[in-house]
């Protein structure tokens, strides 16, 4: 039976109106943006992003391989195909080689848990349109009918939740070469066949089947939110879906929406604000600085090292954001050892310094240039954390921003003995640092209890 967009919208509306369960959100941004962000998201601070799909087979350039080859006609990609594949080879011919034969979801989940991350976001579908679950609206272009012949979304979700981590799903609204989408695009997005036949059925299927704690929307920028019927979907999601009380969404729901509408803001990829934003936000960053998907041609110099990652995490949390760090597995289903090493290194640092990250709030001052750059986070009304992002190489260390009292206690996280300190004349203090313990992360935290 063919279901029209009007019928889908009516169904969502009826579902929304049917519930008598507390406050209702109407399908408009004023109402949807008034929804409080579920508390768990602000508390977790650190998550892992996973870009995995057919693009992991050529593993060349970036996850935009198909577009760069057939959309942008990049000479780099054209020459790669001429050199390595026979004439007539199409992008869809890569799918059978997306074997994922070494994919062990429990092993992945162990690595993610060891990293200290509290949520994981997997690509359920990237812009290529290939779904990592058996989407009923994506016959033979999905991981059950093709390639791995398994439900990657479901398998990873079970392993993640066994470890009490939150599970989120990335979903691209548009698909580069889907003929139904291209037809709507050709019509100036005055028709919505692609939304009715693909977008809304797949999104509701994902939510009902996997009950994600987070939906990371993308691929929205070519058309307005009215084309995507975003507000109707979000009203159903917030009012009547099986995750209505816990689900978190981002801001990519139509051209002009990002950094303006949605649950929290991603804004641009690798968004780095210069000052404390007035809305909850997230920075998505990839260990491989040139790609989100796995690249066989990546070089060590193109990867973020551990000190750089920790600095980025600390900066983001001090400014009130969450940090979503991406790794791209191989087509075989392996997380490269260099990525695993980075993730375990973060976890080792967080085991000692995590109380300065998890469930913290931005302080009244986010940073100061002491002898070295210091970032501040806070908990309750009298505990402040000063995170030192490089070794000051001195015993006497001044912090000018904290307002001390006679009850102030200063400790170095990982060292139970209180440190000696003396107040400065007006505000601030001088701390007597011990020899700082070695850490590959090159960052240490001073905990200040009893400060204003």
Describe the structure concisely.
29% of the residues lie in helices and 18% in strands.
- Placed side by side, the strands forming the largest sheet appear as 5-4-3-2-1-7-6
The number of domains: 2
Beta fraction:
15-25%
How many helices? Answer: 13
- Under CATH, the topology of the largest domain is which? TIM Barrel
* Name of the level-1 CATH class of the largest domain: Alpha Beta
Number of strands: 15
What's the overall average pLDDT, rounded? 94
The helix content is 25-40%
**At CATH's second level, what is the architecture of the largest domain?**
Alpha-Beta Barrel
Distance between the termini: 65 Å
Written as H for each helix and E for each strand, in order along the chain, the element string is HHHEHHHEHEHHEHHEEHEHEEEEEEEE
* Form type: globular
**Cα Rg:** 24 Å
Q: How would you classify the helix and strand content by structural class?
A: alpha/beta
Give the helix/strand layout.
Layout (H helix, E strand, L loop, with lengths): L4 H14 L10 H4 L6 H6 L1 E5 L14 H7 L3 H10 L20 H10 L4 E7 L26 H11 L3 E7 L6 H8 L6 H18 L3 E5 L6 H4 L1 H10 L8 E2 L31 E6 L19 H13 L2 E7 L9 H17 L7 E9 L3 E7 L3 E6 L7 E4 L9 E4 L8 E3 L5 E4 L11 E6 L3
Parallel strand pairs: 1-2, 1-7, 2-3, 3-4, 4-5, 6-7
Antiparallel strand pairs: 8-9, 9-10, 10-15, 11-14, 12-15, 13-14
